[in-house]
Amino acid sequence: MLLLDGVCTQVMLVLSGGAFLAAYALLLGASNKVIGILFAIPPAAQVLQVPSIFIVERVGLRKALVVGSAGLSRVALLGMAAVPWLVPAPHRLTVLVVSLLLFWGIGAVGGCAFSPWMRDFVPDRVRGRYFGRRLAVAVAAGAAASMAAGIGVDLYRARFTPEIGVYTVLLAVAAAAGFLGVWFLTGIPEPRMGLTSPRGIRAAIAEPLRDANFRRLMLFLGSWNFSVNLAAPFFAVYMLTKLGMSMTWIMLLFLLSQAANVAFLNIWGRLADRFSNKSVLAAAGPLFMASTALWPLTTAQTSPVFVISLLSLIHVLQGVSTAGVMLCGWNAALKLAPRASATGYLATNALVFGIAASIAPVLAGVALDWSASHGVSLVLGASSAHPGLRIDGLDLLFVASVIVGVASLRLLARVDERGEIKEKEMLGEVYGEIRAAARGLSSVPGLRALSSFPYGLVRWRVGRSVRDGGTVRPRVRPKNA
Question: What is the pLDDT of residues 21-33, one digit of tens each?
Fold first, then answer.
């Protein structure tokens, strides 16, 4: 039931968000600032998890809270679908924003109960592998749905008008998938939760903030998500507007990213169980920053082969790295949160994540509109014989995202995780697993490039001692490798 819920939820999210939401909003006349607001709503809604601590810790009805809030939130998707047909043109964007806020806001109330429910339901020893497999199946289903939807959008646009009609159909299908997922949630058992001693919301938040190690984890996750959300909401906008790509091509690239994501979720889960979540985050994080840094190069040449090849590599790197960060960021919070106070810890972590990830896209949207009106740009490699590479608008935003992301990775080193291998040589072990998996999928151009990535540049050769007294056998490199 938990697996099927994951599949339905993923299908719902891909059909109601990402490139489809961006295209829908653009057709309604959205500016960069409005796009930023739309993509800021999901993380901003996590703030509503905090008041839910009171209900969860006193009543203990985690399943009822999750099922009720999830079912009610899906109704807002039907409201989003009705916007072009029932709402006057001047108010359509306002109603779209409010509907999306209700969808994520009501759903976030149950999110406070979902994490501690899963903490008790899925055993510690297999949590990484199980959620890796669950995410892999869900992402695969979401990728298939998004590919079919992308083709459907282009076919619809070629035959029917107005174009916006196809996006309302997608939102209705997303709502149906969401309601089916709620039905599956009702079949998942809930382990008995011991009621905690009465605490106020302020006390529940103060406890994780006093925990120095968990505070360091929240600082890393907050800064990381700020950097990612500076750029990620505008990837689809970049391909739609600056590169002029069709929805089918965008969904093909998304499918490639999701294929890489599925291929590596189980690998990251296994590595997290074998080593630590922190080790996986340290390996996956730089890959995502590398993929973001490559976006400005897509306009360096006009050759379609060059653009598609580079975009393929970017999406493969995004899929591989997102799998590790998405899985192990959540697992690290679950692992470091004390069982008796898990609800307060995880809700506070969601609060920090929500604040950071919601400020970033709004700030990015405002900055984009301002830079466009003032002609701000950065020129690299200019000479009398060559005009150089001009970086402006979205390209400049991607550069800023990389700078913040690299800085946030330094905060990860201060987090202490039980069973963690301190030595940086561990990254060599992790990247060895990545290289082996990528070679096994070398028929995919992007993954073939990944298998040749110079991981030795980020590998440090130092002693191999393990914090808990274990040892790691070094990977022997063949002479002819």
Answer: 989 998 998 888 8
